[in-house]
Write a structure and sequence with these properties.
The chain has 220 residues and is α/β, with parallel strands linked by helices. The chain is built from 8 helices and 7 strands; from the N terminus they run αααβαβαββαβααββ. The chain starts with 7 loop residues before the first helix and ends with a strand. Its EC number is 2.1.1.-.
């Protein structure tokens, strides 16, 4: 494990060429959880989907197989990741609104989404940051909308505590006081579900658990 944290956008810009192969070949159960995540997106006409941390669009590759006409707003810090996504799906440019920026800061607009989605991106933030973002997501959904999160999980509270302590230690060592830096801080299943409830979601379910990841569905 590196002792030096990298700025999030720079981290992913540098790794864009090998990112998809890494996720498919090195991340446990990734082929299964990308497909399973996509299965939660219906083939509804004119569906509006918000994808947070969309990266190169590995989840969208699967979603487009189910609903080729879905309208996607994708937000990511990495310009190179977004460029790769658009290159893969340039025939869908009229259905892709890609925004470079932090989904904490980007205004989601006044138009409501049917579904919000994030895959392998939320495991970098504190509990407080997550609740703030989840509340923002809750507000941007239609009355019958829902949020799907697929992410790494900590298997025990002691593991979660260790990751957060390490993140805090490394940030202090580098004098980092703000901004987003790459370090994994996954939550336990129980904590993750509780954070979504604290943000206002009325029904939070563990849809499926894998060895080191889980899929959650939070209904507005």
């Amino acid at each position: 494990m590196s002792e030096r944290l990298e700025d999030m956008s720079s981290f992913f810009d540098k790794r864009v060429d090998n990112y998809e192969q890494h996720m498919r070949d090195d991340v446990t159960d990734s082929l299964q959880f990308y497909a399973e995540t996509a299965s939660l997106i219906p083939a509804k006409k004119n569906l509006k989907l918000l994808d947070l941390g969309c990266g190169t669009g590995l989840e969208l590759d699967e979603i487009f197989k189910i609903n080729e006409n879905v309208f996607v707003t994708g937000i990511d810090l990495s310009s190179k990741m977004l460029e790769r996504l658009m290159l893969k799906h340039k025939e869908k440019s009229n259905h892709l609104n890609l925004i470079k920026g932090s989904y904490f800061d980007v205004d989601f607009g006044t138009e409501k989404f049917d579904i919000a989605l994030s895959v392998q991106t939320m495991h970098h933030f504190t509990h407080e940051e997550k609740v703030t973002l989840y509340a923002k997501l809750h507000d941007c959904l239609l009355a019958d909308g829902y949020y799907v999160e697929t992410d790494y999980i900590a298997n025990a509270q002691k593991d979660e505590d260790f990751y957060y302590a390490e993140s805090k230690r490394l940030k202090a060592k580098q004098g980092i006081t703000k901004g987003f830096y790459h370090f994994d801080t996954p939550c336990t299943v129980g904590n993750q579900m509780n954070l979504l409830r604290l943000a206002g979601f009325s029904c939070v379910k563990l849809h499926k658990r894998y060895r080191s990841a889980a899929i959650f569905v939070a209904e507005k």
